[in-house]
Amino acid sequence: MIDSILLVDDEDLFHLVFEDACSLLDMTLSLEALNSSDEADRLFRKWFIEGPIDERPGCVFVDLNIIGSSFDGIELIRKINHDYGNGVVIGIISSSDDNQEIEKAKEVGAQFWIIKSDEIEPRLEDFLNDYESYQARTAPFKVYR
Amino acid sequence: MQLSQEVRDALLELAKKKKVYLEGNILKVIKPVDNDTELKAYLEVCRTRDKDARKKRLDVTKQVQSQNKDLEAAAQQNEQLLQDLQVALNEAKRSEQEAEVAKAEAEKLRDEAVEDLDMLQKRTQFELIGLIVKVALVIIIGVGVTTTLLYSVAMLAGADTTLLGNAWSNMFGILLTNSFSIIGTIMGVKYATEKDN
Fold first, then answer.
1. Are B54 and A23 in contact (CB < 8 Å)?
2. What are the beta bridge partners of residue A112?
3. Is the ipTM of this complex over 0.85?
């Protein structure tokens, strides 16, 4: 089970889908969902500068295109990994499977890419099975199709 | 997390009497003591109910999400159709304008052609009139000169000029009258032509 999860996605309906899927899979006890990358950026900056560091989530799922935000999911991952000290399992959850975007995400340090679809649960289950190796930084980048 | 006896009893009572059960992630952290089968059964019911409720909600949310996507796709399609329609409308307007320009051009050409034809007809008329005038003048002058010469020769030769003089006088009067008549006709034709324009 993952200690805590942060979801950054502009679609409120997906928050519900993700929350219920996580609950059914017993993925986590603590799930927070945000609508904008700016808000997530503010939180990580706060944790990085003021702490406490253990308030940070164990795993972050970021949507690729976050409408209404100053920057997209890939830029948020770059900031978290390079500006705010890394330390979390982080990746993209998106309906896109654009190879160029996937490569960009990989370059900025995303550890996984989960493709959103109607049947998200099997992918999340696979991800949960791999989670420990992501935590240990031993798993290679993976796309869950 | 373990529940106190008081809380445990209250929860079980609530479930029995009011059918109110705990739900959510709190169920995953409550640990019953090993021999408390009643609480274990209660928690199992709670988890099953919670799971069923979440499953239902997940299905409904997915349906709504799918319908939203369909609606968005339909809206995009409508937007595209509207854009296509606008393009077609603009194209139709442009064609109409082009047709109007072509029509104006054709009318202009037609007017020019009519004008050219009119001009041609007038020129032919003027040329004909000019020819008639020339022929008439030649005849008038020729007859006048011939008669005058004959009359002059007769006078110089001392011959009787009574008949010739009368003839010359009559002839000259007729010719003069005719020449005025011709000039009058020409002026009339010219005036009528100018009036038509």
1. yes
2. A142
3. no
